[in-house]
Structures are given as structure tokens and as C-alpha cells.
Design a protein that fits this description.
The protein is mainly α. The protein contains 18 helices and five strands. The strands form two sheets. Strands 3-4-5 form a three-stranded antiparallel β-sheet. Strands 1-2 form a two-stranded antiparallel sheet. A hairpin with a 2-residue loop joins strand 3 and strand 4. Helix 10 packs parallel to helix 13.
Length: 450
């Protein structure tokens, strides 16, 4: 860390002239703790800079390093921060501040995800009057848990210094920041598990095969246990709990689990689970019979799901200094940023199949399918199951044919059924059609032997 601590040496050198030079330097010296002054007095002898050369002293990295090590060993955390703030100010170091860009991204993504989830639910309840599934419930629950995170980020962590260097803040702001960050951490672990449940229950609806259903049920159970374990551990990771946000100053007593290990373990398991959840629908693609427009929709859905995994991996590298940083308000900005992106993009991805159905209804000529259905079972038989999803059907033609021969009477009746509104145009489950249906009823004849 490049810290112009050595500027204090210059102040000491100017002590004989402070009354002639003005009150600024004298005020700075008076604000320094005794431990910092002692460190500077010890380190000045090894400095190659002239006592009056302010530029040399501010840029001398060796002197800065020596003074910084001494201050860390001899001073308290608060004394060290006071020293750092004074020297940075006197050397005219730029004040770093990344709060604005995070504020814009946080509000933008939070608004987009909320609008899409609301559109998904309103479309089902008002337009199609469809049943609300478990996937809808968990997507909405994720949003509900995510709204406090958006608010806390905007009104809690950012105003208390996230995106700024810790030494530019008041001590009370540092405590407030870590306390808000603790709440965000607990909410994040909960959101990750809930969001995955939304995906898993969606897969349950569109992939009816027994093997994949068993795999999905096992994954759901694992995800529930995974989310519960990390959420509870995050809540009680310190004893007392308040030690989480009070330990930074070294003036309180308590004990915490390895917070770094907790963050890494959650991220690693989450990424592995994401990869497994991507593999499940991909393994079913060989069973799908889709028009090319629907293939594009499915490809987009899974591609965005892959992007969520990529975001999780990018977030993983931001955990390198997590919980071990001496400048948490600056270093944990990146962790918070990627966590916000991950959850909101995940919600947007979860709503894509439903939004695709809405767009097909609004722009049928552009996004609708070009043929009635690719499923021969529905085309030939017009089963009650196919017609039972809000579709209006009419018989376009009926033809009867009978034949007698070799003591066997065979009667064949064929119906041509037209659907004015098919399930795939009103429900995201219709995005996928399985070959399992076409295996049924391969024969179009009912035979009576006499």
C-alpha cells in the first residue's frame, strides 16, 4: 500500500519554523498521535530526502514503508487511520470515490428486475389467469428479500463510505458500514438459495421425465440445506454477533469463525451448483422438438443462465481480500458490486421464458411460431390434455372410413383440430415440447375383431 506517511517527517522538520509558516502545519502536527511522531523520528535518519524537500518525502516509497510498518506496530487502528488521513491530505493525494457508479447500477438493476418479475406475475394472474407455480413463488420471494438489499446499499453502505478509503471516514461511519454489510451478507446467502429454487422448480415443470425429476428433487433438497446452513452460519458467525462490526478497531473482545473461508465456501459451492443446474436442462435438449424461433428462445435462456455463473466466478476473485482487508470500505466495494449484479441478473434470467411469452402475444407475427405444432400427437388426435389449457378448438373436418375383410371390422375416424390459442402462446412451459408425447398413440386405428 502506497501511503505518504513520511509527510509527517516534513512536519517535524518544519517545527522550528511553524510560527513563521502559518498554522496549517502546526495544526497537522498537533493532530498526530505521539506514536506516529515517534515512528517518524526514528525513520527520518534513513531517509535520503532533504528535510525541506516535500516532493521527495511524499514520493519516497522506502521511507513510507518504514514509517507505515512502525505505525501499524506502535499505534492503534484509530491512531493509524488518523495519521494516514493527515498525511494524505498534506501530500494532496486524490480522494478516491466510486460511490456514484455503484448507486446508478444498484438502482437500475433493482428496478429492471422488479419490473420484469411484476410483469411475469401480472401476466399470469390477469391476462392468462394461469396458476402460480412454485417457481413463480420463489422468484417473487427472491425479489422481496432483494428489495431490502437494494435499499440498504443505497441508504446504508454507500452513505457510510463504501467506495471510499477508510481513512477518509469518521470512525462511526466505519462501524455503520460494517454493520450494514453484515446484513447484506446474510441476505445474499438467502437470495442465492431462493433464486436457485426458482430455476429448479421451473425445470420441474418443463421436464416431466422421471430420471430428471428425481435429479431435480435431489438438487432442490440440497439447495435448501445449502441455503439454510450458510444463512444460519452467517447470522451467528461471531460471538457476540456485534463483534462482527465492532472488531475492526481492536478495542472489543469476541470471536468469529473464519469469515474468509465462509465466503469462499459459499461461492465455490454456489458455482458448482450453478454448473450442475445448467447441465440438467442441457441434457434434455436432445429430447426437444423445437421450431427455430423457439430454439433461439431456449438458447438465450440458457445463455443468460451461463452468464449468471460467469458473474459468480468473477465475484469469487473479489473475495481474495474479503474480511482481511485493512481498507474494507474500498476493497469490499467490488464484492458488493458483483453480488448485486449476480442476484439481479439471475432474476432477469429467471423471467426470460415468461417475458418471451408476453412478447409472443404482443408481436405474434415477429416472434410467434410458423406452424401449428411440431407434435404429431397433438396434430392427429387433439387430445383433451392439449386442449385443456385455455385453447379454443373447432373441428375443421371429420372423415369416417370402414373396411370389412378377413373377419375383421376396422373403423377409422380422423379429426382435424385447429387451435385458436395454444398453450405455448400463453405459458412459458410451452417453450418446450418433449418427444415423449409423440411416442404415444403411434397407431391411429381402433380395431374390433369379431
Amino acid at each position: 500500500m502506497k501511503t505518504p506517511i513520511s509527510m509527517l517527517v516534513l512536519l517535524l522538520a518544519f517545527v522550528p519554523w511553524t510560527f513563521a509558516q502559518g498554522s496549517a502545519l502546526l495544526s497537522a502536527i498537533e493532530a498526530l498521535p505521539p506514536c506516529a511522531l515517534q515512528c517518524l523520528t526514528t525513520s527520518i535518519a534513513a531517509s535520503p530526502c532533504e528535510l525541506t524537500n516535500q516532493t521527495c518525502i511524499c514520493l519516497d516509497q522506502t521511507l513510507q514503508g518504514n514509517v507505515e510498518k512502525c505505525v501499524l506496530q506502535s499505534c492503534t487502528v484509530k491512531q493509524g487511520l488518523t495519521t494516514k488521513n493527515t498525511t494524505m491530505t498534506l501530500c494532496d493525494a486524490p480522494v478516491r470515490d466510486k460511490r456514484t457508479q455503484f448507486k446508478v447500477l444498484n438502482i437500475t438493476l433493482g428496478t429492471i428486475s422488479a419490473v420484469l418479475v411484476a410483469l411475469r406475475i401480472v401476466y399470469k394472474l390477469v391476462i392468462t389467469m394461469s396458476e402460480i407455480g412454485w417457481d413463480d413463488i420463489f422468484v417473487v420471494t427472491t425479489l422481496i428479500v432483494g428489495i431490502p438489499s437494494t435499499i440498504i446499499t443505497d441508504r446504508g453502505t454507500l452513505p457510510n463510505g463504501m467506495g471510499k478509503d477508510i481513512w477518509t471516514l469518521q470512525f462511526s461511519q466505519v462501524t455503520n458500514f460494517i454493520e450494514f454489510f453484515y446484513v447484506l451478507e446474510v441476505l445474499y446467502f438467502t437470495q442465492v438459495a431462493l433464486l436457485k429454487l426458482g430455476y429448479l422448480f421451473f425445470y420441474q415443470r418443463i421436464f416431466p421425465g422421471k430420471p430428471v425429476q428425481l435429479a431435480l428433487k435431489a438438487t432442490i433438497i440440497f439447495d435448501i440445506l445449502f441455503g439454510a446452513a450458510f444463512t444460519i452460519t452467517a447470522i451467528f458467525q461471531c460471538k457476540p454477533i456485534s463483534y462482527y462490526w465492532n472488531s475492526w478497531d481492536g478495542e472489543h473482545t469476541g470471536k468469529c469463525v473464519d469469515i474468509n473461508a465462509l465466503g469462499w465456501a459459499n461461492a465455490a459451492i454456489s458455482i458448482a451448483l450453478d454448473i450442475w443446474m445448467i447441465a440438467i436442462p442441457l441434457s434434455q435438449l436432445v429430447h426437444l422438438k423445437l421450431a427455430w424461433k423457439k430454439k433461439v428462445g431456449v438458447a438465450m435462456m440458457f445463455s443468460v443462465g451461463t452468464f449468471v455463473t460467469v458473474v459468480s466466478i468473477l465475484r469469487l476473485q473479489s473475495l481474495v481480500h474479503f474480511a482481511k482487508s485493512q481498507n474494507p470500505t474500498w476493497d469490499q466495494w467490488e464484492v458488493s458490486l458483483w453480488s448485486t449484479i449476480e442476484i439481479n441478473v439471475g432474476l432477469i434470467c429467471a423471467c426470460m421464458p415468461a417475458i418471451r411469452v408476453v412478447l409472443v402475444r404482443l408481436f405474434p407475427k415477429v416472434l410467434g411460431t410458423t406452424k401449428a405444432t411440431s407434435n404429431q400427437y397433438y396434430q392427429r388426435y387433439g387430445s383433451g390434455k392439449a386442449m385443456g389449457h385455455g385453447a379454443n378448438a373447432s373441428s375443421a373436418g371429420v372423415s369416417n372410413h370402414s373396411r370389412i375383410g378377413n373377419g375383421v371390422i376396422t373403423f377409422t375416424k380422423t379429426f382435424d383440430v385447429q387451435h385458436s390459442e395454444r398453450r405455448k402462446d400463453i405459458d412459458e412451459v410451452g417453450l418446450v415440447e418433449l418427444d415423449d408425447f409423440s411416442a404415444k398413440g403411434k397407431s391411429g386405428r381402433n380395431s374390433i375383431e369379431s
